[in-house]
Amino acid sequence: MNNRFKFLKKRKARPAGAPEVFRPHKTETGDMSAELMNTVNAWLKTQFGRKMVKLSIDGGFTCPNRDGTKGVGGCLFCGEGAGGDFASDISDQIRLLSKKWPDAGYIAYFQNHTNTYAPVKVLREKFSAALKHQGIEGIAIATRPDCLSEEVLDLLDEINQDHFMWLELGLQTIHEETADLINRCYSLDIYEKAIYELNKRNIKTVTHLILGLPGETKENMRESVEYVCSSGTWGIKLHLLNVVRNSGMAILYPDYLPFESPEDYIDLVCDLIEIIPPEITIHRLTGDAPRNILISPEWSYKKRTILNGINAELKRRGSWQGCKCE
Ligand code: SF4
Hints:
326 residues, binds iron/sulfur cluster, alpha/beta, single chain, TIM Barrel, 35% helix
């Protein structure tokens, strides 16, 4: 371990009821991912007793890293849509999805921009409206760790007492040099403080990391995953870096290719899954940019192919989530 990361802590105690060791097992649906990993979909099914679907909601928020409060121009990888390009109205989404999954329950996912960046009164109205909507059984909120004031934490605490909820934090990397390069505009200790405050209130957190950021080696990415897994996060999202239109990446590094091939990416993700502790829920293993704005890597939109490749590689190795945890 590099000396710079001596702040890496011992793993937190396993939450009550979390598996000690994840063992490959058969599922009713034959879902290979759920057989080899603690996927959030499988976890939600055990909690709610049926399939749960996340609905992407655009709450109309902005971002302090775009309006000059924290920075300008946004994070280097971020397109104008901030990853929420699929967001649409709740009723429309339920109407469409209920044809496919008539018995599903729904979680309102505030995805676009920074969803705690507004006066608390506004946040309360928007989150309450979503939670009151028929069919909605929980809420997920994506934000930045530097947008969690005491008042916001109090509101989240209040919601968490009465509703199923988790909060998502965009960390992307633990390496300050990369954080500067991608214009993240907050330091790692802000993330540490946020996780501490959220855990203190028993609020589940999901941490986002990006694989393939400029200048990062596979060892750097592994250090980020190890750090996040020991930080007290409940879940993890691993994003393949997507270069999208209207992003800083597209302007500064138009020819950038984060991985040589899908196989190269799949190999790294499998290495990382093996060191993610079994109690941590896995929420994402690929990129999610819509094809019409995706520049590179051009194979990134083939999400099913990448996920199948990850499952096949784990199977070939005879490995699974956490099998190489200490
Ligand atoms: S990634 Fe999030 S924090 Fe960064 S510019 Fe986009 S919306 Fe803002």
